[in-house]
Amino acid sequence: MSNDLLTIIDQDGKTQKGKDPGLPKDELQRLYRLMVATRLLDERGLAMQRQGRIGFYLQSTGQEASHLGAAYALADRDWLFPAYRQPGILLLRDISIDKIVSEWLGNSGDTSKGRQMPVHYSFREANFVSISSPIGTQLTHAAGAGMAARIRGDDTVFMTFCGDGGTSSNDFHTGLNFAGVTKAPVVFVCENNGWAISVPQCKQTASESMAIKAQAYGMPGVRVDGNDILAVYRVCKEAVDRARRGDGPTLVETVTYRMASHSSSDDAARYRDATEYEAWKKKDPIARFQLYLKQRKLWDETFEAEVVETAKAKLAEGVKLAEARANLGPESLFDDVFMNLTPQLKAQRQELAELMSKGGVGADVGHFPL
Ligand SMILES: Cc1ncc(C[n+]2csc(CCOP(=O)(O)OP(=O)(O)O)c2C)c(N)n1
Ligand SMILES: [Mg+2]
After folding, report:
1. Model-level pTM?
2. Which of the listed residues 197, 210, 266, 280 should we mutate to test ligand 1's pocket, taking the one with most ligand atoms within 8 A of CB?
3. Average pLDDT for residues 156-177, to the nearest whole number?
4. Catalytic: 141?
5. In which domain, by residue range, is 293 found?
6. Contact (Cβ atoms closer than 8 angstroms) between residue 191 and residue 163
7. What is the CATH number of the domain that holds 118?
8. Residues lying with their CB under 5 A of ligand 2, a single-atom ion
9. Beta strands in 152-289 (DSSP E)
């Protein structure tokens, strides 16, 4: 167990000897595209919230390497139990912008039909389990799913995410404890971005690190530079391979920074020092990876322009498609709750239909109430 921070890409874009995971060139460029597309998606999300087109948004700016590098280490058949700050995984798993934005809008194109908060995605087709607002609950869900896979004897791996604040939840203990005892094939990724809304890491724990907590649960704990996508990938790939071999779970702490406010309802400038932000801005994970690619002659201005243009065009098209989708009416309240509606609910649905036909209810569903 070590509290050292594993880094592969230096600040000048060079890799440390013998540590480069050796990904193929087209895959390196693909990862870069995903990072840029994630950043642009994030900017659009906040812009749409500020324009009043959606009610709430939660940015991941600065954490692209941390979550993309981690999820990239999984096989397609593996499962994800994410927190709310890993939108790049949706793009990695080919979820369309249309579906993502429909979730923000809570319209008829949304998997959850508007019953979740914006940014609380759920995509069965991508093995992406519904995001929960209570921090930490996904850790126990992942542990349980991992235990089930072990009992069934299949070799699926489960990756779950939490923040530094999430380590103080009771579910952190429950999830890691069960996974440790049962050797469940789970990779716990703690994205330590220094803050839990306005609570800094020093007030979150007296531990030297988050990774060291793994020791108490009988699993390896690894601390990695979360703004270095190659380092995150390398550490997580080892953890995924270990889990698949049946050797049990790992806790990975990715040390990163929340560049934006906690959410569209927060203003970090009220509790955070600007110099801290400026220092982390210099460690931007996208700029860092760009330097690496440049060293390897895999990046130039023409490539950059094409990457940005392609991502922006996909965004524009997806937003347009999503905004053209119909909102769901109040009658959808009765769907997907019971396989067979109870007589009382049937009567209520009938009553609502009559009111609606007279124009009494449901003409305008309104905005998300935040
Ligand atoms: C169980 C629980 N307690 C409190 C909250 C309120 N809350 C929402 S986000 C958050 C901070 C989480 O910080 P962290 O885990 O570091 O994740 P980050 O937002 O930094 O990604 C808190 C306290 C919650 N959602 N659930
Ligand atoms: Mg945090």
Report:
1. 0.95
2. 197
3. 98
4. no
5. 25-323
6. yes
7. 3.40.50.970
8. 163-164, 193, 196
9. 158-163, 186-192, 195-196, 199-200, 221-225, 250-255
